[in-house]
Amino acid sequence: MRIELSRFSSRLKRVFSIPRLYGLLGPRAYTVMMFSAIFFTLAVKFFHSYRTGMINEYFGWILADIAVLLGIEVILALVCFRWPRSWVIRIACVVAAVVCTWSVINAGWVIRSGMQILPTVFVSLFLDPITSIVTIITNIIHMKIAAVILLVPTAVAIVFFFFVLAKPLPPLYNRKPFAARIIVCVMFIFIAALSRSALARRSSPSIASAGLHYNSQLRAVNSLFSADPWRLTSADIANAKRKIPAFDQVQIPLRSKPKDYNVVIIILEGVQYRKTSLWDRQSNLTPYLADLAGQGAEFSNFRSSLTHTTKALFGLLTGRFPSAFPDTAEAVPVVKPYSSLATILEDQLNFRTAFFQSAKGNFESRPSLVSNLGFDKFWSREDLDDQTAFLGYLGSDEFSMIEPIVTWIKSDEKPFFLTVLCSVSHNPYEVPEWFATPFGEPAERYQQTISYTDKFIAALDSKLTELDLGKKTVFCVVGDHGEAFGEHGMFGHIRIAFEELLHVPLIIRAPSLVEPETRVTEAVSSVDLTPTLLALLGFDPNAADFDGINALGQVPDDRKVFFSGWLQESPAGFVIANKKFLYNPTDKAVSLYDLSVDPYELSRIELTGPQAQRIASEIITWRKNSIFQLNQERVGRKTLFDSWQCRWINRLAWAKRYPDVIN
């Protein structure tokens, strides 16, 4: 028996030995890689269709992949058949390896976001490679099974690829079988291409499905070189006419004697309106937010103007639209701070100003954005002495900010403007151990962080009361953008324009200035916050050239509230009352959602003809007009807040902490 097992084992070793496997697969290297690309693509789309309940969409999603990837394989096979030389085989293998690598990256992105990846996603990797890599590793840790399924075969494929490059084996072709193989592949390509058109017409019109109908490789190339009018080009950037005024170019008149109030704004990171007790009063997830809304004004139809934190912060704190472009132009250091809520309050009412955040300061070059907005003080996770309060790769315990905030408030008798940016509700959604044991699933962890943030808001508000400041403080809680958890088959917040991303909380409590139980139901936006707060303090915001309006005043019934995603290929649109108009550049479609009868956006109404063209043109024009001039050197560096060195290239900025740097 042992002898037979020994013989069987030796046979397996001979059959599956590396030289023998290489001899078998080496002459077919590019084919192996191309079919690996097909496998990864088809497998991940099946997984996504299964987890989102869209199995009936699956075949429509994969037909373009079959046509394109098989087409590439056929071309490589014909080239190697015609010129069976080592350098040709190496080039074919490099092409196949690039295609396969993109398929693996795309598979990971589909698992994480529910969307196919595009080259613009890599902007963040360029800006902050260390944080981006840590983010990727964190996501891998939280998706262990998917990571193993993707990474183990990828590692094997990489080793195989370098074997082939070092020692290419020419394929041995038998003309008849080779010709038959090519004919069969071409037939599959034609059938897939023809069937895709038919299935696309019959499939669900949801945006999630439309994005997955395309082949990711072809879509990526097209996104770089297409002449789509939606795409913003370098010429659009260079010819931008819009200018953001500097702090000394804006003087806003007072309508009455200025109100003797402090201002506190707490900005929630990625919190959906529907995940709070504001949406469902029976929910006990955010009881303090619900109580706070009863003490002042709740804006139940408030939306983020752009679903990216840097962009949203700029809109919230300046009253002007950020540039709807995948850059961080708002954070590129400028010679003079922009006109903002901070600069207006400091220059005209002698306020002191501070920006506190529990996240890392180098994330999206926050110090330079805060400096551009005119704040005197910046505090971030790097200022914490206790590193045990750090949470994940980005955030920290929000409660650790309370003591330094109180210290800053007590340091001077002058009125103050304080902005606090939370971070715990950002991916990877971790709460401190003292608060609770973190849940397992991302959606559960996310809700847990929202509950935790509600407790932090209550604690900070309590401190203001202890300092006898509650009755003389305008206390505001607002969201930057929401977060998706598969409501429409997508996850995250980069390229999504559904209400789970746009609809966020806004509450303003101002004792004696805002009546309790005030409820504003008109559609308002991030850019309305600054003019609204200025109006409360006695200013006349109509005298300034804001993009926003006083949301506590008269809101026109026909007002268009514009919004956009961050990336080039993101949908954008506007809301009028409860009608939401959307332009999706993926399929060039214009659609309408009637939110009064369809609040969850399950029934998309397709618009066509002149009406659709007019709406698409209006949205495209708004987006292009949002780009502002950046009157700054192309490349540079600047030290800010004593210890932050901020650098920039064109419209991209990043920052690094140097504790010993002194201005």
TrEMBL record:
It is found in: Cell membrane. One of its GO terms (cellular component) is plasma membrane. It holds the Pfam family Sulfatase. InterPro entries: Alkaline_phosphatase_core_sf (IPR017850), OpgB/LTA_synthase_biosynth (IPR050448), Sulfatase_N (IPR000917). Its main location: membrane. The keyword Plastid does not apply. Residues 262-538 form the Sulfatase N-terminal domain. The chain crosses the membrane at residues 21-46, 58-81, 88-111, 117-138, 145-166, 178-199. It is a multi-pass membrane protein. Signal peptide: none annotated. The keyword Transmembrane applies. Keywords: Cell membrane, Membrane, Transmembrane, Transmembrane helix. This is Sulfatase N-terminal domain-containing protein.
